[in-house]
Structures are given as C-alpha cells and as structure tokens.
Amino acid sequence: MNPDTQDSTFFLALRRMRAPLITLISIYAVSVLGLTLIPGIDAQGQPNRISFFHAFYFISYTATTIGFGEIPNAFSESQRLWVIFCIYLSVIGWAYSIGTLLALLQDKNFQKAVRLQRFNRAVRHMREPFYLVCGYGETGQLICRALDQLQMRAVVVEIDEARVSQLDLHGHTADIPALVADARQPEVLKLAGLTHRHCLGVIALTNDDNANLAIAISVRLLAPKLPALCRAETIEAATNMASFGTRHIINPFDKFGRYLALALGAPAAYHLLEWLTGVPGTTVVPHRDPPRGQWVLCGYGRFGKVMVSALEQAGVLVTVIDREPPPDDSQRHWVRGDGTGVPALLEAGIHNAVGIAACTCDDIDNLSVVVTARSLNPKLFVVLRQNLQANQALFDAFESDFTVVPSRIVARECLAILTTPLLAPFLWQIKQRGDAWASTLLDQLTERFGWEAPTVWSVGVDARQAPALLEWLSHNAQTISLGDLLCDPHDRSQDLACRVLYLKRDDGSTVMLPHRRTPIQAGDQLLFVGQATVRGVFELSLNNKNALDYVLHGREIPGGWIWEQLAKHHNAGAHPRDGTNPDRTTS
C-alpha cells in the first residue's frame, strides 16, 4: 500500500463516480430545461410557462421516486409526455449511479484507501505514549497483550491481512490501530507514528531478518533518539544491526544458548534469572540441572549451531545428527541421518547419553525425536524446540526439561527492556558474582516471596515517577534512608513486601542489594522485586506528600485544605498536660 494515497480517498471516489455524476447532471439539466420550454396552461386557461425553480423542484422529487404532483398548475399533454420521458431517463441514470457506487464500495483499492485514512487519523489523534510494533505474529501478539495489561498503548504494522483481522478478536482493553503494509518502507513507518511525539520506541518482530534490518535503519535515520528493539535470528543480521548503533538486538537462539550455558555452569544463577523474569502470577518450578556428559543433538541449523557452541563452551561432548553434515568439520562426531529414527539415535550412542536436544524447525519432527529417544533412554535430559504456538497442547503433553519457544524468549526480553530497564544490568551482575552468591540471594528471596514469579519494576526519583519524594528532597537538608521509604503508608510499623535489588545513581555509580541505611538521592533509579499489590502502595508514598510525611515522621496530615486548617487550630490549642502529641494531628 502506498502511503501517499492516505488523503486521496475523496478524489478516488470522485474519479470513479465522474461518469455517473455527469450523467445525472445532464439528465437533470435536460429535464429541467424541457419543462421550462414546453408551454402549459394556468388555472384560467391562459398559456403559461413553468419557472426554472418550479421545474427543478418538480424534477428533484419526481426523479428520485419520492412522489408526483403537477405544480403550480396542472400540466398540459405536451408537458406530461415530456415528464414520462424524464422519469424513465432518470431511473436509468440513478440505476447506473447506484451500481457504480456499489462497485466502488467493493473495490479493494478503495477499501484499502479508506482503512489507510482511518488508520492515519487514529495515529495522529493519539495523545498517550505508545510503542510501534512491526509484525503481529506470535511474538507480536504476546507483546501487545502484555502492553495492554500494563495499560500501555501500541500501534501495529503487519504485512499479513489475516493476522490483522484477528486483532479485534483478542479482546484488548484499548483499541490498537493496525495497518496492513510492509514495514520495510520508511513512509509506512512514518505513517504509523515513527516521528510522532508520543512514540516511545519501535519493536521489530517480523520473521524476516532483512525486514527487521530495514526497520532498524529507518529508526536510526528518521528517529535516532527512539530505542529500537529488533529481532535477529542470524549472526550476520545481528552484526549488521549493531554496526549502525541499534540499541537492543534480540536473537532468541543466542539468548537461550546463554541460558543453557548459565544453567550448566551456574545452576543457581539460572534459577534466580528464571524466577525474576517469569510471568508474574505463575509458579516457577525448579527443574533439574542440566547434566554433564555425552549429549546428542538433532538438527544442525541456526538453533542447532548455537546449542552446540553453548554445550562445547561448557566442556560438554556433543554428537550431532543431521541429514547433511558439513564435509569439512572433523572436530565433532557426526551421524548422517534422521533423528526421528532409531538407527541414527543408536549410532549416536543414545543409551550412554545424558541429554538430547531436538533443534529442527519442524515441531512434529522434534517431538518424534524426543519421544523415540526417551523410549530408548528414560533418564535423558531433554531440550525441545517449539516453533509454533498452535502446537502448545502437544508440547504440554510431553514433559521436557527445557522447551525453547523463540516467540516467548523475544517477548520476555522485550518486555524486560521496556518495563524494567535496570533488570538487564542486574542480571549481568548475577552472572559475574558467581553461583554461591546467586544461591544465597535466591534462598533469601524465595523464602520471603515464595516460588511464584514476582513483580519486578523500576522507579526513578524524578518529577514524573516520584514528585512528592523529589519535592521533599529539594526542600530538606535531611537525608532519607531506603529503609524509611519502604514503610507501609497505611501502617508505618510494617515494612512493604518488596526488596530493592539494584540502585543506580545519577552519576552512573551502582549499588548491588542496597541495605536499609542507604541514602536516597534525586535522580536515583531503583530496581524492585515484590508482590504485585505492593507496587501501587509504594507509589502512593512517592506521589502523595501527606502519605510520604506519614511514612517518614508518623504524622497523619489530613488531605484537604479545610481539614489542614482545623488540624493546625487543634494543635495550637492543645495543652501539654493532656497528653496530646503536637507532632501528630488527626482529622
């Protein structure tokens, strides 16, 4: 679809209706002119000619089949003969016009132009921050559903019309403008809000690396200040994106390879990462750690190469089963064949293996591989790749140790970047600190919050997220400690069910697991973990100066002006002997 046609709907309709309109105008003109020229007879029997106004009025309601009446006087025989001719002529003209109009409404180009104009109007009138999502496949659907739950707006560009038609069936709380177009075209991105002042960023999630690369370039050149989150499934595409400064490049296979390597080398760190990045409300079940020993891998494609590299970096021996092994690779043990069959698995030594990874791009083949392998060796640790969400029921029926769903990996990574930007540096610190440190932290957190995936969020001490706290810090020389701030604004004797994992100062310095005595400063950014209900309660202290005053000093200050004046009057008249605390006022 060419975005230059966004304002051409009206002119397109005029071009298609030009001939019918000219026909109708001609019929009306000839009919009116004939009535004015043909003589009639008035009520006294004198010759009379009808005026242009009366002729046009008569033809208007007669030609549209509304009714019939001879005005202002009864017609002569000549006039009636002319009117009969005009009636049939106008019927033909209206039939031709209505038929052309119906054909226009069914024309694909006209329908696209109308949808494009409606989409453009919806994007222009958006007054809330939104993300531009390019690609509404499985990953795009997960992203849009999560953004909707977080009460954040989205705009979708998808090349497949069938996917866009499903958008209204997914029951989003807010309307999501969607355009059927190729997101590789810069004009399409601009039309979808790339340069809109409320656009927060672009998420490129198509299944074509070249398309994602084109989107990344467009963002870099047309809106360099916006963050771009781009999916890349090949190393070449990821390298190309990184060369011109794409901020966030997500390769689901490479990401899982790092997860597996972490699970092999530091299982506690992996469990902590899995618990922190889990979907809130779901229970994270700690699975058994990947064993060391001989592994069998089926399918040496993009995902298979990443898996082999991750396993070999962890010091694990791998036997690869593939239909076409590379002829120049003599460093690995190869088995030519199909992993779905018993002979190839036996040749690869499945009886002595400790794990198997099914890495092909076909879900049925992957399931066939692991079912056959488990029948030969029930103790195998299974890594299973799932390509399509539609096959979820089949994968749920098979109990694998790791199920790799690229769409979920990309969606979870995107949401972590968008909603909790401090989570990525904290997770990097986890990997650097070692498994013993991660194990201790995991035990502390799960003992307090349980194994249900918590809510993880970031807070900045700024005018947008913490106006009351920022105002207090700017007008008081006294410092606020983190422990004082984490008191319940409804009962300050209780601590909120959350913990600060990471603190980033305005000067770039960071603090891992800050203690309760850590002072809070303007410009700080904090990473929290805790229960979902605690987030809203904590935001009350950040946004309401009365709630903040109660949390810090225990003073219950009434919210309205009248109540504040009454409280001051009450405090001024209180006698010291009556036991009243002058620092504590009640409504």
Task: Give a verbal description of the structure.
- The protein has 587 residues and is α/β, with parallel strands linked by helices.
- It folds into four domains: 3-109, Helix Hairpins (Orthogonal Bundle); 126-250, Rossmann fold (3-Layer(aba) Sandwich), CATH 3.40.50.720; 253-424, Rossmann fold; 454-554, Alpha-Beta Plaits (2-Layer Sandwich), CATH 3.30.70.1450.
- Helix content is 48%, strand content 14%.
- It contains 24 helices and 20 strands.
- The strands form five sheets. It has a six-stranded parallel beta sheet, with helices on both faces. The chain has a six-stranded parallel beta sheet with strand order 11-10-9-12-13-14, sandwiched between helices. Strands 15-20-17-18 form a four-stranded antiparallel beta sheet.
- Strand 12 (355-358), helix 15 (363-376) and strand 13 form a beta-alpha-beta unit.
- The longest helix has 30 residues, at 77-106.
- The two termini are 63 Å apart.
- The relative contact order is 0.06.
